[in-house]
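Take a minute with the sequence and fold tokens given here and flag any structure token that looks odd. Thanks in advance.
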Amino acid sequence: MPLRGIRFCSFGILYFFLNSFVVPTASYALKDCMVTQNTQVICRKKSFKVFPKNIPARVTSIELYGNNISTLNKTDLENMPNLLRLDLTRNRISKIESGTFVVQLSLEVLILKNNRLCKLQEGMFDGLVNLIELRLTSNQIQTVEPASFKTLSKLRILDLGHNKLRHLTNILQHTPHLQTLYIPANKISTFHSLELSNKSTKLVTLDLSQNELMYFRLTAGIFPKLKTLKLKDGIKNGMVWEVNDTSYLRSVHKLDISGVHSSLHGLQEVIETFNSSSQIYLQLNHISNSLQALINISCKILKLSTLEIRNNGIKVITSDMLHLCSYLKILDLAMNEITNISDNSFQSLRKLKTLKMKNNCLTSVPNAVRKTQITKLDLSHNNISVLGCDDFSNMTRLRVLYLGNNPLVALQDCVFKDLVNLHELMLQNSSIDQLNGAFKKNTPNLKNLSLINNELTDLVHGEFRALNSLQYLSLQENKLQQLKDGTFFGLSSLTYLNLESNKINEISNCTFVELKALKTLHLGRNCIQYASVEPILYPPFAELSKLDTLYISNQIRPHKRPNFPQNFLQGLTNLSILYMQNNNIKFVHPHTFNYTPNLNVLIMSNNPIRDIPDNLFSSIKKLKSLVISKTMLRSLDVLLHSNLTELEVLEVGYNTFSVIREPVMLSLPALTDLDMQGNSFTCNCDNAWFLQWVITNQQTQVIDAYNYECSYPPNLELLQIDVRSCTVDTDFICYISTACAVIMTLAVCFTHHFLQWHLVYAYYLMLAFLYNTKNKDKRAHQYDAFVSYNANDEGWVLGELLPKLEDEQGWRLCLHHRDFQPGKPIMENITDAIYGSRKTICVVSRDYLESEWCSREIQVASFRLFDEQKDVLILVFLEDIPMQQLSPYYRMRRLLKRQTYLSWSRADAHPNLFWEKLRQALETQEHPMGEHILLTVEDGPPGERPDQ
């Protein structure tokens, strides 16, 4: 075989052999990561130092928040072409190799906040042709190279805040669609429009806050669409404000110059630039001095619609403080120290619609608010303790009222009498213990009422009878004990009712009868009690046929056994979500869920049920999520009898089962998320199938599977156990078969290349042996010698050898062309000739060695030599032949080392001696080997001189 063929064969075998070890990763179990919604990977605070491997290619979102990754290599993301969002916040990334994102053609959001990048280089973001949002906040970026963003043609949001940039060059050149640019808290002292672009941009928001601006130059109209400009804590005293044409900022709607440290003249120059704007939302928070002057300057802008003056330490609002703000629509005075507001303070604000005064020190509702036409009023987080009947008189336009976090004690029935258009009322976190009929006659259009965290202990019949439009009612964290008949009379439109964290211990059969439209009901953290699981006469939810979500968890039962009657859920035919965890339930009746055929989500964890009835879930075939963690469950076989073919999420952590059987998992064909944390797994052959399934299945994510621990053997993790001995490993059998085939192929290739002639020789030697065994007793010596020669040497044989031996010396020779019997097989003729002669003369030449039939003749002759142990072989070399050419003729090489031979090529000087020695060899009797007469020849093989 040619050497090239050997190399090709060896390479192909090696490739196949190596591939027998390579098993493609199909696992859905990721170490230290969680896959949610089948396409999102979350690896928060797992101390990764490099980008995690084996993330499925189908993933569209990866969150690696809070790890220790220092470098992004070009191979990290090469197998994730479907990625849409990548969050690498709070790592240690200081280097991103060029070409890292070349495969991420679909990536839309890249978050690199809180890392250690110092420079944005060309090629760093290559491939991100569809990136929309790039967050680089809180790095150490000092330089942006000219072509850093050259591929980000679709970028809309760029956040470079809290870095070390000194100028804005090279940011907008390659981002024509950029709409939001955040660059707060850098070291920018000069802003010049030419640094950003020489043509119009699509910027909508520009944040220059917390810089040290000394120069602001706008010499071209590059911001035709700019709506928000933030200069908070960024304007220093003496700053040069140069805007050649005020129309350049005519589209600005929101201006933040809070916390500025500039002169009044300088601020006036800035504010007056926006006179031509359509509407202005101006923020003047944290102004240290000249606040009144700034308000007066600001209010001269005819289009000033919103004024925010928070955190300025204002204590009193006087009548002339806002008298110039006649066009104001929204006034925000929150987070000051206001204790008093004069009656005419807002009289000039004829267009005012929203007034915010939360987090102040007001003790009562200011009279000034009654003289406005506002629709929204925020008085939360003040010191108001009493609400009078006239506090909101004539405020018929008010739609939203925030009064939460005030020390209110009780309401009066007349306090909301004029609020006929009120839609939203917030009274949370107060000390209200009595409603006193405040909602029996008033606020007919109220839709959202919050009474969270008050002191209510009782609700009388018809307490909310006037609230026919109410949709959301929040009463959690009060002290309600009993819900009487008619408590919710009149709430025919209510869709959301929250009664969580009260002390309710009994629900009347008529409590919810009026709530025909209710969809969500919170009853968690109460004291609902029933003596047994026997059916009750009047189920509490019998009339709630539209209820979608029910929270009945965390019930505290100090006296009676924790049970729910078997018909407790009767009437909830459309219930979709049920929370009933942490109830200390020990038994659930098999018919409990017969009344909820449309249930999709069931959470009943942390209940010591231990033995769940086999048919408990059989009636809820649409179930998609089931959480039964911490229930002392001893087996998952209950799922086999439930036919949960649509179940997608199953949480069964912290139970007592140790073995998961194959039929259980196969009975859940739609399962995508499985949480079994905290169970005591037996890591032996009983779980062999499950261990293999965790590693190889591509549909179900077994959450945190790499951290599951074994109860037996101890101190091992579930996925570290080798269970290959538990089953017939077809992969291993295939591997052994393949390995044997490879070894055999290598052996055949090696033998064919290096031992070809030895095999051929052995083959014919065997044939001669068989033939000799069969016929040796039948033969007699008809000839003195058989002459084996090549046809190309026939001239020497007929012209030299034959005349000398036959004519002169009288020997009878056998020649194949003269003495072979016609029609007889050639091999048989050769064997008969050799064994029918006393001697065999081999006339060896290069042509002889290349002849197939000559090689067979010498092989048969040499076999006779060793078989009979007689001196029957005479070698005559017509020419000198190097030893390496004799290497295929292994037997001949051995003969040359043990036997004498004649060389015609060296008999030129003494030809008569050559013929004499040949005669002597023919006359020699068939002595045993080792007793033959030595011929006078060279001591070494032909081609090797004695003097060499």
The CA atoms of residues 845 and 878 lie 6 Å apart. Residues 31-186 form a domain with the Leucine-rich repeat, LRR (right-handed beta-alpha superhelix) fold (CATH 3.80.10.10). DSSP finds 15 helices and 47 strands in the chain.
